[in-house]
Structure to design on (78 residues):
C-alpha cells in the first residue's frame, strides 16, 4: 500500500465526516430561530404573523448553510 492510496481513503472519510459536522450548525440554528420565535409570540401575541414570516426567512438562510455543506462534500470528496 503506497502513500497515494492512503491519502485517497482519508480524504473520502473526511468529506463524509465534514458534511455531518456541517449539518450540526444549521440544526442548532433552526432550533434557536424557532425557539426565539415561540418566545416572542408568548411575549407579544399580536405580532405572531410578523414573527412567523421572519422565522421562515431565518430558517431559509440557516438551511442555506446545510446546502453549502453538502455541496462542499460533493466537490471535495464523495
Amino acid at each position: 500500500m503506497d502513500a497515494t492510496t492512503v491519502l485517497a481513503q482519508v480524504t473520502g472519510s473526511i468529506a463524509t465526516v465534514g458534511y455531518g459536522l456541517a449539518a450540526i450548525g444549521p440544526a442548532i440554528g433552526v432550533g434557536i430561530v424557532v425557539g426565539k420565535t415561540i418566545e416572542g409570540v408568548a411575549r407579544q401575541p399580536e405580532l405572531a404573523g410578523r414573527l412567523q414570516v421572519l422565522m421562515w426567512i431565518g430558517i431559509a438562510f440557516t438551511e442555506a448553510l446545510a446546502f453549502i455543506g453538502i455541496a462542499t462534500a460533493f466537490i471535495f470528496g464523495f
Q: What stands out?
A: The radius of gyration is 19 Å. The longest helix spans residues 3-43. The chain is about 90% helix and 0% strand. The helical segments are 3-43, 48-76.
